[in-house]
Write a structure and sequence with these properties.
The complex is a heterodimer of chains A (407) and B (263). Chain A is mainly α and 407 residues long. Chain B has 263 residues and is an alpha/beta fold. Helices cover 39% and strands 25% of the residues of chain B. Chain B has ten helices and ten strands. Chain B has a six-stranded mixed β-sheet with strand order 6-7-8-3-9-10, with helices on both faces. In chain B, 44% of the residues are buried. The chains are: A mainly alpha (407), B alpha/beta (263). Chains A and B meet through α1 and α10 of A and α2, β6 and α3 of B.
Chain lengths: 407, 263
């Protein structure tokens, strides 16, 4: 192995790639600017939507208000609702979103309460619609309060203590350390992000250095020079790997910075409470050791992707053809990474050998502060083996005349 | 020196099975000599030259290039060969100087040697003006000069040219022809392929006529004229490959234009 030649090829390919705007875009501009912009933008936008929905006074209809006078009064008097005159087409109006919800008080409701007979209040809403959901929540609280007041009145009629309504309270208290909470919230998405970006970063240079060379006619030029085939593959491969890792590191940095910006933005707004359990806060509370461990775990994956993309793109004659082959591979990469995000998916001995998914799963663990050393080394080792196999395939492909001079 | 001995190469084709792109080709080229491979498209010229440049491995037979066997020591062969083809393009995003230096480094030359040789080549080829500009903006003629400098940086003993004038305008083609003559003058072994009859007449010391992957005739221009009792190169060529009908029939059954690819 001639390391001087490998380095010569690597340096030339890197220089060549860095002069290519498309490589710079996929390697630096996309992860550094566009992704955080998209992330901050979408979070700010959804916060704005929620805020304006909360600020709106929901319009509500009361059907059969005369059946339950006291409840009707409670609803009408609530400053949180805007009661509008009832019409027969309330269902259509809810669907059209001109009315958020409607409450139906059944006939004989007051009488039923007086006689302690069961009856039911119906709330018509637009299931899944944010504003209708808010209106429903407000109505439910008013109805609950009214029910409680009815029970209290009945208890006092019978000279029983009011505490009987609520014999005990329930309280929630979080005991998990903050990084665990953050890790759980982001445990799935962060490794997925890194895996996807290390793939994306390798994709364009892998195609450009193989199929791109064939297309531009420089492959034959380099092959007739005295550079060894293995040296040439390795020099090119290290360039692809550099691009992959750069993309990943740039994205980590930009994500960290944008999370800081996000928190400072939210900290000043009224949405502080919402932010407390939000993603950005979680990201800040992530265990740095866990994050570092994820990066280490993704490195052999980056090697695997670089070699795999290299071998596949090498077979193609042109950029276009290479992209056709690479696109399905992207789905094959995303699927196992996403599968690990699903709730209830936990690491076991079998899954520890499934490439990509194993890294995604163990990352989830590591980000919540637990480091299963046995699984970690098994996964790291197996990822390395897969990566080496892919690299060996790439070298073999490069030595085949039918691949290099394919027409 | 180049010596090909029963050099043969087969490609497999899905429809027609195994195809002999080059079959039992033997010839010898001495230093200071230009050997011209003349043939129609798909005759096996490119494959023969790619075998000599070790881009492809022969199926049968072998060749010795500058004292090294192409099968046993392909790497050593490449250090002695300068290969220039219509299909050997340059890296557009590198400057002319960077391109020349890259190939110098791959040939194991020291930095000082590269600097010195680049300066000389640039002077000889009149490249000083655009030496530090990126190749992508160059005219065809400028690119040709960079390609020539690229093939000469390691001062190879053997030069292989595969249809180097293909697609070039008259002036750029003349640069190449002049350059090939200079190679001969410096005592290099030169092999050259073309389908242009006039180029062969002007340039070659020995002419080999290839057809259907086989060497059909060989000799100096005078020898070929005597053998076929014709003065016109085109007539000699047609006679050598067995008449126009035969040529047309052969061409229709050829594996691919130029035999440019192994499939």
């Amino acid at each position: 192995m001639n390391w001087r030649q490998i380095f010569t090829v690597y340096r030339k390919e890197l220089r060549d790639s860095l002069r290519d705007k498309r490589t710079l875009f996929s390697m630096i501009a996309f992860p550094a600017l566009i992704m955080p912009a998209m992330m901050i933008g979408s979070i700010l936008f959804s916060m704005k939507v929620v805020k304006s929905a909360q600020a709106e006074l929901p319009t509500v209809m009361v059907i059969g208000g005369e059946n339950g006078l006291a409840l009707n009064e409670a609803l009408t008097k609530s400053p949180k609702l805007k009661i509008v005159p009832t019409t027969a087409d309330y269902a259509r109006k809810i669907s059209e979103k001109s009315v958020r919800a409607a409450v139906e008080i059944p006939a004989g409701f007051d009488a039923a309460i007086a006689g302690s007979n069961p009856s039911a209040i119906k709330i018509y809403n637009y299931n899944g619609e944010l504003r209708s959901g808010f209106a429903t929540g407000i109505i439910e609280r008013i109805v609950d309060d009214y029910r409680e007041s009815v029970v209290r009145a009945k208890l006092s009629e019978r000279n029983l203590p009011a505490a009987l309504v609520k014999p005990f309270e329930t309280q929630r208290a979080n005991v998990a350390p903050p990084e665990k909470v953050g890790g759980n919230a982001l445990g799935g998405i962060i490794p997925y992000f890194f895996i996807f970006l290390s793939f994306l970063g390798a994709m364009y240079p892998a195609i450009d250095l193989t199929a791109g060379e064939k297309e531009r006619g420089t492959m034959e030029t380099i092959l007739c020079s005295p550079v060894g085939r293995v040296e040439l593959v390795l020099g090119k491969f290290f360039t692809v790997l550099t691009a992959s890792l750069t993309t990943m590191f740039v994205s980590i940095t930009s994500l960290g910075v944008s999370a800081l910006i996000l928190v400072s933005l939210m900290g000043s707004g009224a949405a502080k409470t919402a932010a407390r359990s939000g993603a950005a806060n979680g990201a800040l509370m992530l265990d740095p050791m866990g994050l570092l461990a994820v990066v280490v775990m993704v490195i052999p994956l980056a090697v695997l992707f670089s070699a795999l993309l290299f071998a596949i793109a090498l077979f193609a004659k042109s950029h276009k053809e290479a992209q056709t082959y690479v696109s399905p591979l992207m789905i094959a990469i995303i699927m196992p990474a996403v599968a690990a995000m699903m709730p209830g998916m936990d690491l076991n001995a079998k899954l520890a050998l499934v490439p990509i998914m194993n890294v995604s799963l163990v990352s989830k663990e590591m980000l919540t502060g637990s480091f299963p050393l046995g699984s970690m080394s098994l996964i790291f080792l197996s990822s390395c083996i897969y990566a080496l196999i892919a690299l060996a395939v790439a070298v073999r492909m490069f030595k085949r005349e039918s691949v290099i001079f394919r027409s | 020196m180049i010596e090909a001995r029963n050099l043969s190469k087969t490609f497999s084709d899905k429809k027609r099975g195994e195809i002999w792109a080059v079959k039992d080709v033997s010839f010898r080229v001495q230093p200071g000599q230009i050997y011209g491979l003349l043939g129609a498209n798909g005759a096996g010229k490119t494959t023969t030259l790619r075998l000599l440049a070790t881009l492809l491995t022969p199926t049968r037979g072998t060749a010795t290039v500058a004292g090294f066997d192409v099968v046993a020591r392909p790497h050593d062969v490449r250090t002695q060969v300068g290969f220039l083809a219509a299909s050997t393009a340059l890296y557009g995003r590198l400057t002319a100087r960077e391109t020349i230096a890259y190939f110098g480094e791959l040939n194991g030359l020291s930095k000082a040697t590269i600097v010195e040789r680049t300066a000389k080549l640039s002077r000889d080829l009149d490249m000083d003006e655009f030496l530090d500009r990126r190749v992508e903006k160059f005219s065809t003629g400028m690119k040709q000069k960079v390609s020539i400098a690229r093939t000469l940086i390691h001062d190879p003993a053997v030069m292989i040219f595969d249809e180097p004038t293909l697609g070039l305008d008259v002036l750029a083609a003349r640069t190449i022809v002049r350059f090939i003559r200079e190679c001969r003058a410096r005592g290099k072994t030169v092999i050259y392929s073309t389908h242009v009859m006039s180029e062969v007449e002007k340039l070659c010391d020995v002419i080999g006529i290839v057809h259907g992957g086989m060497l059909r005739a060989e000799g100096t221009l005078t020898q070929l004229r005597e053998q076929y009792r014709q003065t016109d190169m085109e007539e000699i060529f047609v006679s050598a490959v067995g008449g126009e009908d035969e040529t047309a029939a052969k061409e229709n059954s050829e594996p691919s234009p130029n035999g440019k690819a192994a499939r």
